[in-house]
Write a structure and sequence with these properties.
The complex is a heterodimer. By secondary structure, chain A is mainly alpha-helical. Chain A is built from 19 helices and four strands. The chains are: A mainly alpha, B alpha/beta.
Chain lengths: 465, 361
């Protein structure tokens, strides 16, 4: 085989089969790419179907206001024509409501089954989120507007109610004469709305779709968002304070002892969350183990009047008695304590595994070069443990920010977090739009945190082990 | 009389026909768990011979129901729901509207829908029980004068100690207004105004610093038992269960109790529809309703069950009289507030938001 046979006329290298080397390489590369993509296809599809799809569809509910717009199209069209929103709308708008109701009421699906009634029911639920009372007002009006004159001899029996409607409707239910109901339609008139997001941060639309503050006594979510942030930060910090020395011990002690200690860390991790929460309840409640113990163990130093200089005779109480029992459960404190314990392993494990990888020789070298143990620890050991600390903090913070079950059980009056309100909207009030909006904000917060971490420390530095 | 016989015959004929068509798969009934589900098991399921019934528990709310119906993947058949959920669920088409003629009339022939303590709200619902939110305490908590009215629950000076209250607004705002002097028939009119709501929350403010909040039905018993609170609101059946079954020394103060309806409904698209309907007919009969009171002190929704119970006293399974433990006797209804689910369906979100804000303050 001579050298020339491997080079074609254009000077390209050829393989043994005479195909240009470049081509052949590209082919085999493509084949590997396709093969690896096929291998990835299963998890990718799984991710799409189980994760991206459902989350996407739920998130889309946070801006979706299509249903109400298909039920009341004429009404909303009339709303645009309603100029002075400080006086009641004209007869046309009242008539539009009745028309919309009558048309929707007769809607059928492709199988000929009536779906209009349920659409109206859903519309009533939706409208009540905007202004209390809409549901019963709408459903009552549906009944009146759709009742027909059964004694009529015509084939299509005429409705009992006839135009003009304005007077009749107000007479039938005086709420139709209240401006607030009509004005609240403004927030629903577009098929896509930011209303749920506004609601989630204590804002709302006025009649002209300007963003305004909610009434003071209805403001609730700002407090909850701030508290969620506060709890997550505090839990992360407490976990870090507790986990760092523990991880250091685990990483530096001889294997035999550190394995034993590791089991102490993992045992609670493997124990059911509910069991741990109930155990804390027994310990921390007002008449629980901790308070009872303090009551019997703490000595009564002094109780009674005492003559103090400057203050004169004062009553002082240095006793820990019945009324001094500390409330540590069913409040903010309880949530912090229990969540810190529950999430502690998520902090210990990454820090530990990073610390394990730090060669002890570095510390020895630092000391050899004249650093004091403290200085060596701070300048040499700690910077190397940062990837583990970062991973632990991010892990704990992200898990904490969406926590639900612990605050639900021990949160009481001031320990509830945003997760509890998402659950409330999902299960109780059925306001899925609001729940989705809160979920989206939570997701955005986590993504921003991730991005910020990447910018500040670099995500490549994150080490889970 | 002839009418009754015909109706019964028709009902049984329909039932028989439905049974013939019923699949062998077991019907899934979803309820609240605890002593309540146990009573349904004993009174309805154990007495039912026409098919297999599988009772499971849930946490309430329509979230799961709506998810099943909207995704077209319905696995539940019958759900035990609160009054406002019975209404919204029926409006939205999550529950099926039922042919009312299949249900058994009372022994005297009154059709089921007229044999109810309230107007039937829609065609989806099948009667279950009355239950109530009611304050209670341990018999030895207070020496001297004992709490006897709802005012006493709001009076932490006369009756010291903390108060157990649930984490949502239902019932407690009605109680607050009643304790503040509003007459029972006017409560919802007053609550419908901004001033009225302010008044209720002002009354709640007076005990704010003394409240321990609970959200699970078993919790108030713990709170009272451990001495964490001196008085607590609870579901009357939970208190009754402890008293009647475990001999607990609890005193119920019936004045100001808020009574709520409880209904059974059939899921739209229920997988075992025919068998489920057949079971609903059985579970809503006057006799079955009376039977449930053998196991728990929730009041039957059908008044025709009461004479059966009275005639059978001692009716409770342990051999004690049950009538005096029922929330809806004339004696206990004197200070009883009937919750208005329509009002709550309209105003629940706003009032609960305000309540949550109040809790968080």
């Amino acid at each position: 085989m001579s050298d020339t046979s491997l080079i074609d006329s254009k000077g390209q290298l050829l393989t043994n089969d005479g195909v240009p080397l470049k081509e052949s390489l590209r082919k085999s590369l493509r084949r590997t790419k396709i093969r690896s993509f096929l291998l990835l296809l299963t998890p990718l599809l799984f991710l799409l179907i189980m994760f991206v799809g459902p989350i996407g569809s739920l998130l889309s509910r946070s801006i979706d206001d299509i249903n109400i717009n298909t039920v009341l199209p004429q009404t909303f069209a009339q709303y645009e024509l309603w100029e002075d929103k400080s006086i009641l709308p004209s007869e046309e708008m009242f008539a539009a409501v009745i028309n919309d109701i009558r048309i929707t009421h007769k809607l059928e699906n492709s199988e000929g089954k009536n779906i209009g009634k349920n659409l109206l029911g859903k519309a009533g639920t939706r409208m009540t989120y905007e202004y209390s009372g809409w549901r019963s007002l709408l459903l009552k009006t549906v009944k009146s507007a759709t009742s027909v004159n059964t004694r009529s001899k015509e084939e299509i029996k005429p409705y009992k109610w006839e135009a003009p409607y304005k007077e009749q409707m107000i007479k039938r239910d005086k709420r139709w004469g209240k401006l607030e109901f009509w004005q609240s339609l403004g927030a629903m008139k577009d098929p896509y709305t930011m209303g749920y997001y506004l609601n989630a941060v204590d804002l709302r639309y006025d009649a002209n779709k300007n963003v305004i503050q909610k009434a003071d006594h209805l403001k609730i979510y700002k407090t909850i968002w701030m508290r969620t942030l506060k709890v997550s930060l505090m839990v992360t910090i407490f976990c870090l304070i507790l986990a760092y020395p523990v991880s250091y011990l685990l990483a530096t002690l001889p294997m035999r002892i550190s394995n034993l200690l590791m089991i102490c860390v993992l045992m609670p991790f493997w124990t059911s969350l509910l069991v741990r929460i109930v155990a804390w309840m027994i310990m921390l409640q007002q008449n629980g183990v901790v308070n009872d113990t303090m009551l019997t163990v703490l000595p009564c130093i002094y109780e009674g009047p005492i003559n103090l200089p400057f203050f004169g005779e004062t009553n002082i109480d240095l006793c820990f008695s019945e009324e001094d029992r500390i409330p540590m459960m069913y409040n903010f404190t309880g949530t912090i304590i229990v969540m810190t314990q529950v999430l502690l392993p998520f902090m210990i494990l990454p820090i530990y595994s990073v610390m394990r990888g730090i060669p002890p020789s570095y510390m020895k070298a630092a000391k050899n070069l004249g650093a004091t143990p403290t200085r060596a620890f701070i300048r040499v050991y700690m910077p190397q443990s940062v990837p583990g600390v970062g991973a632990g903090c991010i892990l704990v913070f992200i898990v904490a920010i969406g926590y639900y079950i612990t605050p639900e059980l021990v949160g009481g009056k001031d320990g509830l977090m945003i997760g509890n309100f998402v659950a409330r909207e999902m299960q109780q009030t059925l306001n899925w739009g609001l729940a989705a909006a809160m979920g989206a904000i939570l997701l955005a917060a986590v993504l921003i945190l991730y991005w910020a971490y990447d910018r500040l420390i670099g995500i490549d530095n994150l080490k889970m082990g | 009389m002839k009418n009754v016989i015909t109706k019964t015959l028709v009902a049984s004929a329909i039932s028989a026909a439905m049974l013939a068509g019923a699949a062998q798969a077991s019907v899934t009934v979803v309820s609240w768990g605890g002593g309540y589900t146990a009573s349904q098991q004993k009174a309805y399921v154990d007495t039912y011979s026409s098919g297999e019934i599988n009772m499971i528990s849930y946490n309430g709310g329509l979230g799961e129901v709506r998810a099943q119906v909207e995704s077209g993947n319905v696995v539940w058949d019958i759900v035990d729901v609160l009054p406002s959920q019975a209404r919204t669920g029926c409006d939205e088409g999550l529950f099926e509207e039922l042919d009312r003629s299949i249900f058994l009339p009372a022994p005297d022939g009154t059709p089921m829908d007229e044999d109810l303590m309230v107007d039937v709200p829609n065609d989806c619902v099948v009667p279950q029980i009355w239950w109530s939110y009611v304050p209670f305490h341990k018999a030895d908590t207070f020496s001297g004068e004992q709490p006897s009215t709802i005012q006493d629950f709001f009076d932490v000076e006369k009756f010291p100690g903390k108060r157990g209250v649930h984490t949502w607004a239902n019932a407690i705002v009605e109680m607050a207004l009643y304790a503040d002097g509003v007459a029972i028939p006017d409560i919802y009119d007053v609550l419908s105004t901004q001033d009225g709501q302010d008044r209720a929350f002002a009354k709640l403010d007076t005990i704010k610093d003394h409240v321990v909040f609970w959200s699970a039905g078993a919790k108030p018993l713990d709170l009272v038992n451990s001495g964490e609170v001196s008085m607590s609101l609870a579901y009357n059946g939970r208190i009754g269960g402890a008293v009647l079954n475990d001999g607990a020394d609890y005193v119920t103060v019936w004045d100001g109790q808020v009574l709520e309806e409880e209904w059974l409904v059939l899921m739209t698209g229920a997988p075992n529809r025919a068998a489920a309907l057949h079971f609903l007919v059985h579970a809503s009969s006057s006799q079955a309703q009376a039977d449930q009171a053998k196991w728990i002190n929730y009041g039957p929704m059908r008044p025709s069950a009461l004479p059966i119970m009275e005639a059978g006293e001692p009716w409770f399974n342990t051999g004690v009289n049950i009538m005096e433990h029922m929330p809806n006797t004339d004696e206990h209804m004197k200070g009883g507030i009937l919750a208005n689910p329509d009002w709550w369906a309209d105003n629940g979100q706003a009032v609960n938001d305000r309540y949550a804000a109040w809790m968080a303050q």
